[in-house]
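Box 4.2: Ligand-aware structure prediction
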Amino acid sequence: MEGKVIAITGGASGIGLSLAKLLAQRGAKLSIADVAQENLDKAASTLKELVAGPDHILTSKCDVRQLSQVQDWLKATVDKFGKVDGAANLAGVFGKSSIEDLEEDLWDFVIGVNLTGVMHCLKAELKLMGKGASIVNAASISGLRGQAGSGAYCASKHGVVALTRVAAVESGSKGIRVNAVAPGYIDTPMLDQAEALAAKGALEQSVVSMPIARRADPEEVAKVIAFLLGDESSFVTGAIYSVDGGWNV
Ligand SMILES: NC(=O)c1ccc[n+]([C@@H]2O[C@H](COP(=O)([O-])OP(=O)(O)OC[C@H]3O[C@@H](n4cnc5c(N)ncnc54)[C@H](O)[C@@H]3O)[C@@H](O)[C@H]2O)c1
């Protein structure tokens, strides 16, 4: 990662922040985008302590639902660092509702951030990137199977799987790799939110039935994303890496 420029959406919290910390320690230059200004400021001060040089970090407020904001953020990244070697498109939101009761607003919000947002990022990133670049998207176990009460979320993550595969097919000849991670239960603010919306004890019951019967630390996902961003995964593209403790076996 030494000297590589990596752009991360959703980098102010959870898996994105954990990835940013890991890559900072490995010598990367980071451009972090997030819609949450307060968390972005906190992340900036934490990451400034970890990056190799005082000038190795850029943080930008950006709503991935807006293509122009994504383009402006990536332009600012290239203006500052001169290139983009890798991107992790991790910004995401959760929403809970049965399909019968699904409100249009919730559908638009979840699809807008999780699916349209990833499309905006891919569209802008692929234009800027060249040979040797690598992109990792956040899918989910919900992108690989149906889960009750998660129609919008599952649809958005199945869409991310599809976009990842199409982008990999379209970009292989340019030397750009595109993969996704499909996390299971990862201890982040999003999981806290999902647990609060679920029936009491339901999430814990599901956790104990998994082959590795625990929630993961976000760093356990960050390490897989770092592998996919780096040169050690040079022949891996179009892959959806489950990081779910064997839940989807
Ligand atoms: N935590 C889990 O158990 C889990 C499981 C499977 C998949 N995922 C996926 O991993 C990714 C990261 O999730 P997390 O658990 O770290 O969640 P998180 O809530 O901790 O972080 C998500 C970040 O995305 C940002 N964000 C939300 N909307 C945005 C927008 N419109 N534009 C820019 N940024 C926006 C939030 O401000 C937040 O900082 C998400 O895509 C999520 O769907 C998480």
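In the box above, the bound molecule is nicotinamide-adenine-dinucleotide. Residues 5-241 form a domain with the Rossmann fold fold (CATH 3.40.50.720).
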